[in-house]
């Protein structure tokens, strides 16, 4: 607003402090009231928009087959092997107890694995039952074992030879090896598949039932996780020889929420009650100013979270960092007003006149810095990740409120609070004046040196790799991360890939050509170094064929008709004319029917085959891979299917594939958003500074800090993931703050005071240098506190942002002044209206 109106506004604020304070409190209450709508969402699916193609593909696979959301107990005997009687009894106990976990649909372990075998008396009669029920071939077989539940007594009664035989069967079973047990029998798993309630279930539900169902959806992950953790504790107490680790998608979901809540409960208090108060008081030496600033920060946080509630935004892992980010951002406006206000009082002005003058001088640059910061965070709406968009919008609300409270509530509070200032010139301002003399005197050296150093560091940007690993979203202090890494190294991986292969024909999976193609893909996938395990229905069919041929090892193969004796489920007589495909199709259909009807409740084949047998799902367990590696593997599989199964309908997806795609797409989306923000902010600065030349010149100190920061990151870290992809957008608005404040003071000296370029630079350092230093220190400390987060996405974002802001201050102090003095000509003396 014009400065005469700014003065009127300032006079009104200091003349009606109680009215301003009351209005501010009402605004806080109105916005904060929306916090009652906030919900904590723990499902990793919140990271994907509803129209995300990989999410759609994954949901289609999930809806066609059994759900793949799981919690996995990873069990390691401290002494002995998995095939110790006490360990087997513990695994059996856990397998039975796991059915009590809420929303459980399936439990898989070595003790309930449904094996097939033939009776000693009749090798044409196949049985399906729990692995521990398998009798020795020399013993008489009790047919009740086919459907009998395993008991601990049965395990105790097993002889050493029978245990050894069971071990041999397990270690040679492709469905188990490297999936629920490792080759040396030192680690095993109990995998619990759950079907969590989701939002679509709310359709058609109203009133109290709607609220109850909504609560059930929001608390489902917590319920499952608590039950799983309780069973973990019970199992280790029951058998102290066992180490039990937890991984799986459900545990990942829970860790997202727990890590975020832990950050909010620890990092935010550190910011509010330690870092910010100490830094502010140390820099401005004013208790009342520090107290008022902290109150504004609290108001801004409350309003931002309340605004998120009004906007229907849910609390997700990135959203838990909002209080820390808003607290950091809200400091800047207060500091500039307070520093100028205290300087005025130090120079003999009354409290009222000093505050009005501070508002007059700082209103335009504070408004500009606030709006550019809001624009920076609003660029996060270009993000492919809904929680990052939500975070950007919520912080934008907080920054807006911080501006409003800084120019209203802060002046009003300072009029009511006692303010003491020293008549002596502070050491900080004395140091800043000396530093200004150094910059002016050494400008001819500083310009080339800063340019060369900046270019040299920026040259390291290509060392950064656009990459991500979603397991590494958590640091190594988090149990889930440690347990997942252990599982990947010793058993199987959390990373998976699911492929649904649809023949588009009922019972089409029984066609011999299809089964052969499926087996070819399995063999191709097993050759890939990233693949730990492949689960396919061909393994089931080969085992069924083996069982129907007297359990002979050489018959572990897909069935096929032949004219010769051997492993042939269909024997053709010499000269017989028949459609071989029809025979095989009928045979495999019979195998599937026998097997399916023999399985107990909860262990159907729907995890691999759809209802009309037109499609089958292959599940691949992968090593912990980066997004680049996941996408590379996906491309290889896609090319294989195009070449070998062009007529089939192939759908592939998984959480690993989804995160890999969104991580890459998000980076390019945010670069686009940053470019738009840069254009918009540049136009604003040209208009505000009323100078095309200075507006264009401001691009240098606005862009270089981000480029230098990413160069530093490339030197020391070298990987840019989802969290860092938003740093350019969110820091752009913040970096502009320093430039706007310095250039506005420089122009005021040139236009109002008629100073030459050297004196104008010294004036800018004197009036705003200390405030910029204070705000940068607080901002850097604030984002470094965020860097303490155990959620790596937030941690890396905080660290890189802190680096960017520190570099921005250096650039504005050592590069911008020489540029201004190099390119400036004498301006006409005039007072801005």
From TrEMBL:
One GO cellular component term noted in the UniProt record for this chain: plasma membrane
Q: Which residues form the SSD domain?
A: 291-416, 694-822
Record flagged with keyword Protease: no
* Regions crossing the membrane: 264-284, 291-313, 319-342, 363-383, 395-417, 445-462, 667-689, 696-716, 722-742, 763-786, 798-820
Q: Which InterPro entries match?
A: MMPL_dom, Mycobact_MmpL, SSD
Q: Keywords, A to Z?
A: Cell membrane, Membrane, Transmembrane, Transmembrane helix
- The main location class comes to membrane
* Bilayer topology annotation: Multi-pass membrane protein
Subcellular location, record wording: Cell membrane
Q: What Pfam families does the entry give? A: MMPL (PF03176)
The UniProt family comment states:
Belongs to the resistance-nodulation-cell division (RND) (TC 2.A.6) family. MmpL subfamily.
Protein name per its UniProtKB record: SSD domain-containing protein
């Amino acid at each position: 607003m014009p400065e005469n109106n700014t003065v009127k506004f300032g006079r009104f604020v200091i003349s009606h402090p109680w009215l301003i304070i009351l209005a501010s409190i009402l605004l806080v209450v109105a916005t904060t009231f929306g916090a009652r709508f906030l919900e904590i969402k723990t499902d990793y699916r919140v990271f994907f928009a509803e129209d995300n193609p990989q999410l759609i593909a994954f949901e289609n696979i999930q809806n066609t087959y059994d759900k793949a959301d799981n919690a996995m107990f990873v069990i390691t005997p401290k002494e002995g092997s998995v095939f110790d009687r006490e360990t087997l009894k513990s695994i059996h106990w856990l397998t039975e107890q796991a059915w009590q976990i809420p929303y459980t649909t399936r439990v898989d372990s070595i003790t309930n694995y449904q094996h097939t075998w033939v009776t000693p008396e009749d090798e044409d009669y196949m049985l399906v039952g729990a692995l521990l029920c398998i009798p020795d071939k020399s013993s008489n077989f009790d047919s009740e074992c086919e459907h009998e539940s395993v008991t601990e007594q049965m395990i105790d009664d097993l002889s050493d030879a029978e245990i050894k035989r069971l071990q041999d069967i397990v270690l040679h079973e492709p469905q188990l090896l490297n999936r629920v047990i490792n080759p040396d029998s030192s680690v095993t798993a109990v995998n619990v598949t759950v079907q969590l309630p989701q939002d679509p279930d709310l359709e058609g539900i109203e009133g109290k039932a709607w609220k109850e169902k909504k609560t059930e959806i929001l608390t489902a992950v917590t319920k499952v996780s608590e039950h799983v953790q309780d069973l973990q504790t019970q199992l280790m107490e029951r058998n102290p020889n066992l180490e039990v680790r937890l991984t799986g998608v459900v545990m990942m979901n829970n860790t997202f929420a727990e890590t975020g809540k832990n950050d909010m409960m620890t990092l935010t208090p550190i910011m509010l009650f330690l870092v910010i108060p100490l830094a502010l008081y140390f820099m401005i030496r004013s208790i009342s100013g520090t107290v008022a600033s902290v109150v504004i920060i609290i108001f801004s946080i409350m309003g931002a979270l309340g605004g998120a509630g009004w906007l229907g935004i849910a609390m997700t892992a990135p959203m838990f960092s909002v209080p820390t980010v808003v607290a950091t951002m809200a400091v800047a406006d207060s500091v500039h007003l307070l520093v100028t206000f205290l300087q005025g009082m130090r120079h003999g002005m009354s409290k009222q006149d000093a505050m009005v003058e501070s508002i007059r001088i700082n209103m335009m640059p504070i408004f500009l810095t606030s709006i550019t910061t809001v624009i920076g965070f609003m660029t996060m709406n270009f993000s492919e990740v809904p929680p990052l968009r939500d975070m950007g919008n919520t912080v934008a609300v907080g920054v807006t409120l911080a501006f409003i409270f800084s120019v209203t509530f802060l002046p009003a509070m300072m009029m009511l609070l006692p303010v003491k200032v020293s008549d002596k010139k502070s050491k900080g301002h004395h140091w800043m004046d000396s530093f200004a003399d150094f910059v002016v005197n050494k400008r001819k050296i500083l310009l080339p040196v800063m340019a060369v150093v900046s270019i040299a560091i920026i040259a390291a940007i290509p060392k950064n790799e656009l990459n991500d690993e979603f397991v590494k979203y958590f640091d190594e202090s988090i149990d889930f991360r440690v347990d997942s890494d252990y599982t990947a190294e010793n058993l199987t991986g959390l990373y998976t890939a699911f492929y649904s292969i649809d023949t588009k024909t009922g019972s089409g999976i029984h066609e011999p050509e299809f089964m052969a193609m499926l087996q070819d893909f399995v063999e191709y996938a097993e050759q890939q170094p990233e693949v730990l395990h492949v689960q396919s229905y061909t393994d089931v069919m080969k085992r069924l064929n083996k069982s129907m041929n007297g359990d002979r090892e050489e018959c572990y193969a897909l069935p096929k008709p032949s004219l010769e004796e051997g492993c042939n489920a269909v024997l053709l007589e010499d000269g017989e004319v028949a459609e071989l495909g029809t025979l095989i199709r009928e045979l495999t259909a019979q195998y599937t029917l026998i097997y399916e009807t023999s399985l107990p409740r909860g262990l159907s084949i729907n995890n691999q085959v759809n209802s009309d047998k037109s499609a089958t799902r292959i599940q691949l367990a992968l090593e912990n891979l980066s997004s680049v590696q996941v996408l590379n593997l996906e491309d290889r599989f896609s090319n294989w299917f195009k070449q070998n199964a062009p007529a089939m309908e192939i759908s592939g997806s998984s959480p690993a594939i989804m995160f890999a795609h969104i991580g890459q797409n998000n980076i390019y989306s945010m670069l686009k958003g940053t470019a738009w923000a840069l254009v918009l902010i540049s136009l604003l600065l040209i208009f505000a500074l009323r100078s095309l030349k200075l507006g264009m010149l401001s691009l240098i100190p606005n862009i270089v800090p981000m480029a230098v920061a990413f160069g530093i990151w490339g030197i020391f870290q070298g990987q840019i993931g989802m969290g860092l992809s938003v740093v350019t957008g969110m820091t752009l608005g913040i970096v502009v703050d320093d430039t706007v404040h310095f250039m506005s003071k420089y122009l005021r000296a040139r236009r109002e005071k008629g100073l030459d370029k050297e004196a104008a630079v010294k004036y800018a350092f004197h009036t705003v240098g200390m405030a910029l230093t204070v705000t940068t220190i607080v901002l850097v400390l604030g984002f470094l506190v965020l860097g303490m987060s155990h959620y790596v996405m937030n941690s890396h974002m905080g660290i890189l942002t802190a680096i960017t802001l520190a570099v921005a201050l250096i650039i504005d102090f050592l590069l911008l002044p020489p540029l201004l003095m190099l390119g400036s000509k004498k301006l006409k003396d005039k007072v801005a209206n």
